[in-house]
């Protein structure tokens, strides 16, 4: 019970330390431990596809988004996610953190065959409904999931089918929760995979690659900070909320997001910060945070894109522009499947790697760093939720905020006029 109650990141760090010791003691024969990491990754890959499929269905069917405001929200969220991934890829291409880390070659060798994303995508289009699930084809499952979710959502407006689809959503949610329950069983085995891959790296190349992974951590933090700047710029251009008010009002949400590494657990505090401390309208906060939070995982998408490029650089695999376009697409979809809970991004990362034929055996090597980077990217996810909510709230402040500042709506047409001396909550 004590082992079960120990936080996963602590067990992962213990696994990394034991891996270093075993790698030093066993030398190159530590590669025989690879069977343990292969077993864990195989189980994780088994659960990755139903998690993404069920999360996509649940997210699209349960999201209460309608009308022009909903369209604006989806544009903000999708554009933010695309910008985040592009920033991640740009930083990874410019700084090339993987070139500072020389990892042992993958078991099956490096795949540097010419990559045609169009033909690859056409080859992944399902020939029948069950084929993608039988062959664990992530892209095919995503195509089936998106088509099925949109068709069901279209039928939901009919009184004839509405009740049945509502019942179906409950079963989908049950299926997703069952998948997550099994995932948590597998998470107890993840430290074993970390131990095995760390032992193999240390036994083959020494501690140098592990130390040099600090380049990857620094690159990810830089990319996340750049994304935060993008939020502030979009906020200044598209909302009545000024960046200073946003930063002061959102502090509690940022602190909780960093401490829990869960954007879902932070939702109530994020909502209260938006409505009570920043001062946005409650109906827009409900849409931007409660609904938008389901789709917005910018930090996760950025991290998974950078991780793919980092591993490719470290093993000498060249990812072309075509590869990186596929990474953008898969990271957007996988970020929705991350479900806003700790460690789920570990599973969806397997989908991103598989889409560009990257060996997934190196994923456990990233986990000793993930306990810290997970908190950083979750904070960015919450920052994106709040910034999107403020933009949805428009360029004219609520009446109560205007009255507290002695202004009218027409005064806001003058840039910089609205500068609250205190928060609407009186704090």
Features:
427 residues; mainly alpha
What's the gist of this structure?
The chain is mainly alpha-helical.
Q: Per the principal axes of the C-alpha atoms, what is the gross shape?
A: globular
H/E element sequence: HHHHHHHHHHHHHHHHHHHH
Query: The biggest beta sheet, please?
Result: none
Q: Helicity, in percent? A: over 70%
- The number of distinct helices, counting runs of at least 4 residues, comes to 20
SS content category: mainly alpha
Integer-rounded radius of gyration: 23 Å
The count of strands amounts to 0
Mean pLDDT: 80
Oligomeric state of the chains? Answer: single chain
Q: Detail the poorly predicted runs.
A: 413-417, 420-427
Strand content range = under 5%
Compute the separation of the termini in Å. 43 Å
Characterise this structure.
The chain is mostly helical and 427 residues long. It is 74% helix and 0% strand. It has helices spanning 2-5, 8-26, 34-62, 67-95, 117-124, 131-135, 138-155, 159-187, 190-205, 208-212, 214-238, 243-249, 251-260, 263-278, 282-295, 298-315, 321-337, 344-355, 363-392, 399-404. Helix 16 packs across helix 18 (344-355). The longest helix is centred in the C-terminal third of the chain and has 30 residues, at 363-392.
């Amino acid at each position: 019970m004590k082992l079960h109650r120990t936080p996963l990141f602590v067990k992962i760090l213990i696994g990394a330390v034991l891996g270093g010791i075993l790698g030093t003691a066993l030398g190159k024969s530590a590669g025989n431990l690879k069977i343990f990491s292969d077993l864990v990754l195989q189980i994780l890959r088994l659960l990755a596809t139903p998690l993404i499929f069920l999360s996509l269905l649940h997210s699209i069917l349960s999201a209460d988004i309608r009308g022009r405001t909903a369209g604006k929200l989806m544009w903000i969220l999708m554009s933010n996610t695309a910008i985040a991934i592009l920033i991640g890829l740009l930083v990874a291409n410019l700084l090339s953190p993987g070139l500072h880390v020389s990892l042992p070659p993958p078991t099956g060798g490096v795949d540097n065959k010419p990559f045609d994303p169009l033909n690859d995508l056409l080859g992944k289009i399902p020939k029948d409904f069950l084929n993608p699930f039988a062959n664990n084809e992530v892209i095919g499952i995503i195509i089936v999931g998106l088509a099925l979710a949109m068709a069901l959502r279209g039928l939901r407006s009919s009184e004839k089918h509405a009740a049945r689809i509502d019942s179906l959503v409950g079963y989908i949610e049950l299926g997703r929760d069952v998948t997550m329950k099994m995932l948590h069983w597998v998470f107890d085995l993840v430290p074993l995979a970390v131990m095995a891959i760390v032992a193999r790296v240390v036994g083959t190349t020494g501690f140098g690659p592990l130390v040099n992974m600090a380049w990857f951590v620094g690159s990810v933090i830089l990319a996340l900070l750049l994304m935060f700047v993008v939020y502030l710029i979009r906020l200044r251009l598209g909302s009545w909320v000024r960046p200073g008010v946003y930063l002061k009002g959102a502090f509690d949400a940022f602190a909780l997001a960093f401490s829990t590494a869960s954007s879902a657990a932070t939702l109530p505090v994020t909502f209260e910060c938006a409505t009570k401390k920043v001062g946005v309208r409650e109906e827009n906060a409900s849409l931007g945070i409660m609904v938008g939070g389901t789709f917005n995982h910018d930090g996760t998408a950025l991290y998974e894109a950078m991780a793919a490029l980092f591993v490719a650089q470290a093993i000498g695999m060249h990812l072309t522009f075509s590869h990186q376009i596929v990474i953008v697409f898969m990271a957007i979809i996988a970020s929705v499947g991350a479900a806003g809970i700790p460690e789920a991004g570990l599973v969806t990362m397997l989908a991103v790697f598989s889409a560009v034929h990257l060996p997934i055996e190196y994923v456990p090597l990233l986990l000793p760093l993930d306990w810290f980077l997970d908190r950083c990217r979750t904070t960015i996810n919450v920052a994106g939720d709040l910034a999107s909510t403020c933009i949805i709230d428009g360029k004219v402040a609520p009446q109560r905020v205007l009255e507290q500042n002695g202004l009218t709506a027409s005064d806001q047409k003058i840039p910089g006029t609205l500068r609250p001396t205190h928060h609407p909550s009186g704090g």
